[in-house]
């Protein structure tokens, strides 16, 4: 089983910033590195699964004509809407329905290791079916996640399941890695 909804809600019970995204120099530098890892200067429409309180979206909104974020936790989305008023934010616990959109950028930052293998397979199927041409960016914590799946275990499972895309690691530190995927044969 992946990390349950109760656990996610518990993380946000006392604060809308459980990981200290807003003030952590480490997190802000990682968000900048994520933006730098993208292949283009502009996207038509981006979608982030597990967008949290919108701190990463704040770094990306300037290069996305439209941005949609989804998170399971309502209070995270309330904070995200304040941080990025021009974004569209929807509540949803994955696996479950994903929003409509003609997305050309999919952002999977620090979220894959909250799922289980069935959820990763489902996400790969959803992407291959609905957004097969999208660029995908994955950001992955390399330390202990405290979740049933470790970061690189989840990333590898997802990359294997999404055989329509080719993955390349574009940045790696002791703590995290950033991987980018394009449709097979595109680059
Ligand atoms: C570590 S935070 C990452 C936030 C943001 N993507 C970033 O990189 O800064 C993980 C977020 O994913 C959300 N999340 C985890 N599992 C989820 C699921 N199954 N469905 C929807 N959201 C989920 C959590 O509520 C949390 O806000």
UniProtKB/TrEMBL annotation:
Keywords: Methyltransferase, Plasmid, Transferase. Signal peptide: none annotated. GO terms for biological process: methylation. Pfam families: NodS. One of its GO terms (molecular function) is methyltransferase activity. SUPFAM superfamilies: S-adenosyl-L-methionine-dependent methyltransferases. Its EC number is 2.1.-.-. InterPro entries: SAM-dependent_MTases_sf, SAM-MeTfrase_NodS-like. The keyword Membrane does not apply. This is Class I SAM-dependent methyltransferase. The lineage of its organism: Bacteria, Pseudomonadati, Pseudomonadota, Alphaproteobacteria, Rhodobacterales.
């Amino acid at each position: 089983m992946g990390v349950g909804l109760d656990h996610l809600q518990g993380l946000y019970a006392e604060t809308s910033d459980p990981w200290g995204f807003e003030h952590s120099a480490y997190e802000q530098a990682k968000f900048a590195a994520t933006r730098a890892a993208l292949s283009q200067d502009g996207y038509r429409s981006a979608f982030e699964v597990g967008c949290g309180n919108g701190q990463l979206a704040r770094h990306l909104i300037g290069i996305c004509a439209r941005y949609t974020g989804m998170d399971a936790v309502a209070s995270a989305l309330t904070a995200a809407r304040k941080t990025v008023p021009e974004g569209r934010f929807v509540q949803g616990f994955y696996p479950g329905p994903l929003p409509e959109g003609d997305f050309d950028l999919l952002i999977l930052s620090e979220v894959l290791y909250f799922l289980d293998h069935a959820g990763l397979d489902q996400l790969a199927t959803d992407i291959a079916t609905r957004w097969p041409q999208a660029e995908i960016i994955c950001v992955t914590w390399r330390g202990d996640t405290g979740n049933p799946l470790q970061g690189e275990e989840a990333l590898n499972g997802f990359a294997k399941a999404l055989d329509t895309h080719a993955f390349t690691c574009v940045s790696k530190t002791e703590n995290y890695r950033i991987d980018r995927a394009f449709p097979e044969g595109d680059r």
